[in-house]
Design a protein that fits this description.
74% of the residues lie in helices and 0% in strands. With 50 residues, the chain is mainly alpha-helical.
């Protein structure tokens, strides 16, 4: 196997793992966000008159 091929394989694997971690983190974050929005009353944003 050529050195370049090994590098490509390794960087591809690294990107794949990084994406998996990001997706897992994002899923956990969305779950927490959903819990927050479902359990609290969402009041309309106050209009500030200057």
């Amino acid at each position: 196997m050529m050195h370049r091929e090994i590098n490509n394989l390794h960087s591809g694997l690294f990107q794949h793992i990084a994406l998996l971690k990001i997706n897992r983190f994002r899923a956990a974050f969305n779950e927490k966000k959903n819990l927050l929005t479902n359990n609290t009353f969402m009041a309309p944003a106050p209009v500030i008159h200057e």
